[in-house]
């Protein structure tokens, strides 16, 4: 798959559900409609469309997102089906971490390769304020379980908010160094109904890096490639090493190397996280998979992928999966 800018599309971010057990302040509007479970793609439909994308269009990487994918009761079946597809070199999942202490081994045994976990603070009170749940201990236990289960390399994702968790960044880097995992700090994006408050909470990566001066003694840049994060091997003042990334969609976008396509739980196609949907695949999947129609819909969406993302996004993050 090549888009209009000749960027190869090799990476599918597949949202399994809009449901999530958290209510993060940067993710959800104050009022959100219930997830439309009746219209969600089934495990069989998911397997069929991914097999087609791998066999006919060179897809290599799949990431399960949400909402939170662990809110799907059939998640294990979905993982098993996708893990059986030859040609997928990377099957990963992004999650809030709440279920990992109990189910990390189940996900690994089903064939999941690795996990990203959201972790916005190590302070219990601040964690609860940002996420809406008093569950920091559960998430930290889940991180330990992921490491024990071998769902690695594990990456931690932190959305950085002005007047919220900027001061927590040094402790988060120290935690990542202790556990031998990568941490990525993410610039807030102006998405959906929350876009009007974006300017009051946005922190650029340059300010994040300045906040790490108290722990970071040296920075060594690593190759970025098509990764959304610019990463660094950081030497801490105490001599430990940490891998730190900055995802900078607003201060320094990485659109020129974007290799992603997004499909939501109801089959909507998003060629770009911040753009509008460009069609829906369900008519090519139900009641029977129609490869020709599927490819026509896919082509329209891929060719609509703009050179750069818009200034603001139309979707709520829990609908599209980040």
How much of the residues is beta strand, in percent?
A: 15-25%
Number of helical regions: 11
Q: Based on the structure given, which CATH architecture is correct? A: Alpha-Beta Barrel
**Whole-number tally of structural domains:** 1
The CATH H-level homologous superfamily: Aldolase class I
Any idea of the CATH class? Alpha Beta
Mean pLDDT: 93
Over the alpha carbons, how many angstroms does the gyration radius reach? 19 Å
Question: What labels would you give this structure?
Answer:
globular; 322 residues; 11 helices; eleven-stranded mixed β-sheet
Short description:
Helix content is 31%, strand content 19%. The protein is of the alpha/beta class and 322 residues long. The chain has one domain (11-320): Aldolase class I (TIM Barrel).
Molecular structure report:
The protein has 322 residues and is α/β, with parallel strands linked by helices. The protein has a single domain, classed as Aldolase class I (TIM Barrel), CATH 3.20.20.70. 31% of the residues lie in helices and 19% in strands. Helix 1 links the parallel strand 1 and strand 2. Helix 3 packs parallel to helix 5. The longest helix has 15 residues. The two termini are 21 Å apart.
Write the layout of secondary structure elements.
Elements: E1 11-15, H1 43-57, E2 61-65, H2 75-83, E3 90-95, H3 100-110, E4 114-118, H4 124-131, H5 136-149, E5 155-160, H6 169-179, E6 182-187, H7 198-201, H8 205-211, E7 216-221, E8 229-236, E9 241-247, E10 260-263, E11 269-270, H9 282-285, H10 291-303, H11 317-320
Parallel strand pairs: 1-2, 1-10, 2-3, 3-4, 4-5, 5-6, 6-9
Antiparallel strand pairs: 7-8, 8-9, 10-11
Helix pairs in contact: 1-2, 3-5
